[in-house]
Amino acid sequence: MKMRRSKPWNILAAFPSVGLAMMITPTILAADPMSEDEFRHYYRLFSDTAYIAPTSLQPDTLLAAEQIFEITDGWRPVTDEQREQTTRDTLAHYNALTERYPTYRVRILDGADPVIVRAVNDAPEVTPGLLRLFIVEVNNATGEPLHLTPVIEESIPYGRPSVMIYPGETLPTLVPIILPPGDREEVTLTFLPAGNNTEAPSTTLPISIKNAATINGTTINGATGDPYPSRVYAIGSDGIYRHAREFGTNRTLSEKPVVFRPAMMKVPFFYTDGTFTVDMPAGETTLILERGYETPLKSSRIQLDPGENREISIESQRHHDMMERGWISGDTHIHWAINEWNENEDIDLLAMVQRAEDLRIANNLTLYQWQPDGGTFIKPDQYPMGPVERLSNGEYHIQMAEEFRNDNHYGHINLLNIKELIEPISTGPGSGGPPDAIDYPINAEIIRQAHAQGGISIEAHNLGPFFASGVPANIIHGLSDSLDQLEPANYYNFLNAGFRIGLSNGSDHPARLVGICRVYVHAPGPLDYGEWCRRLAEGRTFTTSGPLLTLTVNGHPIGDVIEASHGEELKVEAEVWSRHPIGKLQIVSNGEILGTLETEETVATLSLTVPANEPRWFTARTSKTESFDALSGPDIAHTSGIYVEVDGEAVFFPEAAEGWIENLGIHRQRLVQSGNFDNDEQRQEALDYIDEAIDLYRQRIEAHRGSGQ
């Protein structure tokens, strides 16, 4: 079946006089690579299934959508082979979706009366009052383009524009359905034309009605016997994740954007404060309780009868109490605002979510945002800088803090443990203002002000704008205290350049779920936010999206500096516990993988003995994939470094420092070309700061060469 368009897009095409006929045929196949329009159609279809009625396929669906996005909107050149492979992968995933959602094939013919329509699947069960999603594959057997929107009875179009289907083409469309109470054996499928002056043909689809069941649930802390906040996944007999009545209409809790992509996803779980009510289709139902990364998932499978009310409790407790071991989890980067960012969300809900995620410390960062329509906002601003006392205790802590942002040159920095908001909060075009907004003051001045208040500064987004920002300058000037969201390869290059700095991480909510990626800080004793920040700045950390990972060298913990003699044995040990199979556990030193353990177990230890023949740093990492960036996906963890000096010599690779000089050169060139300043003094200050950083890197290189190392 040809999938190429036979005519150009024609939004003015009239809907001809048509009839409908049902064809039970094989799933859609492609003989040729998809066109741009077809790729975009499937991107929309995939992202919409992840939003409207997610199933356990949701993660794979979003990955398939991302693969398409790289073809249509990616910044890398695309080869014919990539288009062909993406076409195959797209249709393979689409075929998997047809196994999860009721699917119909409808052929539209010229001048024919509607005939009997049969489902590709058997007549699906539909529960009145609960959303169900159908896939309708529309084959245009007419001689004219069809511009239409399929709908089922009282259900309305789900907000997407109508689709254009050209003669000979078959395109799948999504049709949500929510039926009112009542018995029936079929529903009416209508194709609404783009114009109002043409016939809207319709036919019937067979269904089976089963009334909803209701679950009244409680999530129990097994250590105390009390209800406690949690995540709950409720998977119905139709495979769709359902949300509870409580918080179900709160979009901040139930929806999240697909970061930097034109799509939203429905969160597959719901939050509960300890009790919940959820309506489910009758049949086999699975409930899964999740509470942070220290507690195993607990599942319960039950059989529900139509109309039943079922009382159920699910109990779980921590397997690893990391706080007892001196490790305190935290999210360095939360904006507790609605998904549109421009309004505060109820901070009491943050406390509930924090506890449901078992996240010990939540940093709620105020930011400034200029908008092209002329509006601005400073949000979230529920409280001034400092602790939110009424929602903090010895178990959990919420702190108001700040994200200072420059989009085009310096990057974003998170300022924690500050006492007063530091103005102007954002600089430069974009976050800070219109195209002529000035790039001043530079981030270095803001960091100094934060330090003067007793705060710390965290570089927020890898290497910042265009991967060439002020980050390497801030590090060599001794201003950066930690590195959020930094890719491992860049981290290794900083360590190879002789820096001893740690990793941290945060969600950047509402871009992502609170605590989805977090940092653990080794800060033994009672929970003390100031001590947590101090130890974070010392690099006594690991970042994770699931596994709990520790590392020692000769018994020394993460962040330590060890003095060793040449030839001395170094015993390196990494330990990990995970709620899911581990995958790979690795020890990395000086940018080289020294050891790998591959396992499907949930507990693992990797031990090595390394002679101290040269200065070294050590880190550990774990992942199921080849990515070890904890922000890139689930079940990834990475430690900060442990540093070994040998006979007084520390790690330094000149080529690493030269790489940062080159990076700063790009940063400087961009600032010269497009930096906005009020006067020459401001511009010179910004350039001098970069030049001084480059000189410091060169001095390190010369000192290394002069020492004969």
Structure description:
- The structure is a single chain.
- This protein is α+β, with helices and mostly antiparallel strands.
- The chain folds into four domains: 18-184 and 192-204, no CATH class; 213-316, Carboxypeptidase-like, regulatory domain (Immunoglobulin-like), CATH 2.60.40.1120; 327-646, Alpha-Beta Barrel (TIM Barrel), CATH 3.20.20; 665-707.
- It has eleven helices and 41 strands.
- The strands form eight sheets. It has an 18-stranded mixed beta sheet that branches. Strands 12, 13, 16, 18 and 19 form a five-stranded antiparallel beta sheet that branches.
- Strand 8 and strand 9 (202-206) form a beta hairpin.
- Helix 1 (36-52) packs antiparallel against helix 2 (58-72) and helix 2 packs antiparallel against helix 3.
- The longest helix has 28 residues, at 680-707.
- The radius of gyration is 28 Å and the shape is globular.
- The N and C termini lie far apart (67 Å).
- The model is unreliable at 1-26 and 113-117 (pLDDT under 50).
Q: Can you give keywords for this protein?
A:
709 residues; alpha+beta; TIM Barrel; 18-stranded mixed β-sheet; five-stranded antiparallel β-sheet; 11 helices; 41 strands; disordered N terminus
Instruction: Report helical residue fraction.
Output: 10-25%
CATH topology name of the largest domain: TIM Barrel
Cα gyration radius (Å): 28 Å
Largest sheet: 18 strands, mixed
Q: Given this structure, which CATH class of the largest domain is correct? A: Alpha Beta
Query: For the terminal residues, how far apart are their CA atoms?
Result: 67 Å
Number of helices: 11
Number of domains: 4
* Mean pLDDT across residues: 91
Low-confidence stretches: 1-26, 113-117
The global form is globular
CATH-derived architecture of the largest domain:
Alpha-Beta Barrel
Number of strands: 41
> CATH H-level name of the largest domain... which superfamily?
Metal-dependent hydrolases
Strand composition percent? 25-35%
Structural class: alpha+beta
